[in-house]
Amino acid sequence: MEVVNARAALLSNYEVLQLLKEHEAEQLVHAKAAFAVKKEHGTDLNAALPTDEVIENLRTVEFEAIEYLSAPFQPTAQQSAEGILKLVRSLAPESLTKAEKLQIANLAPTEPIELYVIVEELEERMLDKMDDILQRVKDSLDDSANANADGAPRVVTEAELATLAMDIDGNDGWDKDGNDDEPEYVDDEGAFEGDLDLDDD
Q: Phi and psi of 88, rounded to 5°?
């Protein structure tokens, strides 16, 4: 297997949760169908069913990710595809990096201290716009709450997810940051490649 494009898309926590729930529903349908065929024909279909340990580990990770992203302290319960799309579009004119926009969508900060943690050098870059950004986040959550006012879980269509992904990946979302000089490669050990030469010559 070869990674063709390592940064093909930025996905918000909400999108990841929706995709995992969709995958879980598909797995359930396939398992029910396989069980029905097995019961009807009385044949042993265990060889055809995925029982590999890797598949079980994947299911465990998916289940735990769904549980975490669905937790009451996560903003994903209050978000919708429309709300995130509205938020990302409203943040487009600001001088935020893609990563900062993604973290704002994921963490949905409602207090100034939360925004200080997300936006680097907030006081220097956009202190006067901080309240406006927080209000945009609150508005996006309010819109999402109104969309889910009946209390029933809202089903997100594939078209909505595709629209959100297109806006996030295209020029209408994350890419309008005015900051094209982001480093392409940063060494995980804290230094840029070639910065330090500690060899004793």
A: -65, -40
Report helix, strand or coil for 14. helix
Rounded distance between C-alpha atoms, residue 79 and residue 141, angstroms: 6
Region label for 190, one of left (φ > 0), alpha (ψ between -120 and 50) or beta (otherwise): left
pLDDT tens by residue, 16-37:
999 999 988 888 888 888 788 8
Q: For residue range 82-115, list pLDDT tens digits in order.
A: 999 999 999 988 889 999 999 999 999 989 999 9
Q: What b-and-e string marks burial along 54-79, b requiring 16 or more CB atoms within 10 Å of the CB?
A: eeeeeeeebeeebeebeeeebbbbbb
**93 burial type by CB count under 10 A (0-12 exposed, 13-18 middle, 19+ buried):** exposed
Q: What is the spatial distance between Cα 185 and Cα 198, in angstroms, rounded to a whole number?
A: 20
The total number of residues written for the chain in this structure? 201
* The two three-digit tokens of residue 127, written as one number: 């202190």
Cα gap 157→89, rounded to integer Å: 20
Q: Which of 85, 200, 185 shows the shortest CA–CA distance to 140?
A: 85
Tokens representing 184?
């392409």
> pTM to 2 decimals?
0.63
